Structures are given as C-alpha cells and as structure tokens.
Task: structure prediction
Amino acid sequence: MKAIYCGILISVLFCGCREEKQEKTAEEPAVVEVLTDDAEMNTAIQKAHSSLDTFNLALTSHNPNYDYFALKVFFPSAEGGEHIWLSEISLDKGKYIGVINNAPEVVKDVDVGDTVIIDNGRIGDWMFVEAGKLHGGYTVRLLRNRMTDEEKNNFDRENGLIIEE
Result:
C-alpha cells in the first residue's frame, strides 16, 4: 500500500504527527502519513470535493469577514504523491490558482512559493476562516479527531481556531 502525505495548514501555523509521534519545527510544517486506502480520509476528501461550491461562493463573495482561503491539492509522484496546501487562492476563468504553502516531502517538481494552476479534480480539501471559525477543513478535522486530548489542546491553542464538531 502506498502512502500519501498530507500537509496540514491552519492559518500560518502548522501542527502534525506521524505514527503517533509529534514532530514540529519552526521552519517546516509537519506532515501526516496516510495510506491510500484510509476509508475515513477518503470520505473526508470526497466530502470536501463535493462541497467545493461552498468554497467557491465564499471566495467570490469578497466578504471581508472571510480570511485564510486555502486548498489542499494532490500532487502525484513516483513515491505515491502528496497533498499540499496552497494559499493566496484566486479564481480565473473557472480555474483556481494558488501558491504552494508548505515544503513538499516527496514531490520534487514544486516548491514553497511556486504559483500553480490547480486541477480541480485533484482538490482534496478546502478551508477558509470566518471570525476564527474554520469552514471546510474536512481532512484537518479528521486528523484533529485522531489526536490525543493533549495534542488537540495544543493544536487548538496554537491555531486559535474554532473547530465545531
């Protein structure tokens, strides 16, 4: 079974774990290794993909209360690929454009700061924040739910988001 790596972006802060081991550095976001046959993760990705219209409406609304728009996009590689968060999202002629927001672990053809046109079929999650409340972030919610209570408390404190169950 191949593993897919998922970067977790919450605003500009990062938190993550790998195999129950917490890893974090100031320069690089941690990643979570997820197997391609993880049913819960695949359901979260499908939910995000099927609700992309909600993200699109929020993005194009220009509501000043909405902030931190981001998309998690799958980038394939020989190692299986990885989901990478993109920020600074814009929409041009039906195509999303974003900036790579976290350093890839296995993908070598993009890097932090690169601007890419997003293949909508590869979107695995979306998020935006309204008055501190996370909208979307289905994979983030799942990974947070898998954390211990202590990890959740640290995650919530570091990110300062309201994540409703």
Remarks:
- Residues 3-159 form one domain.
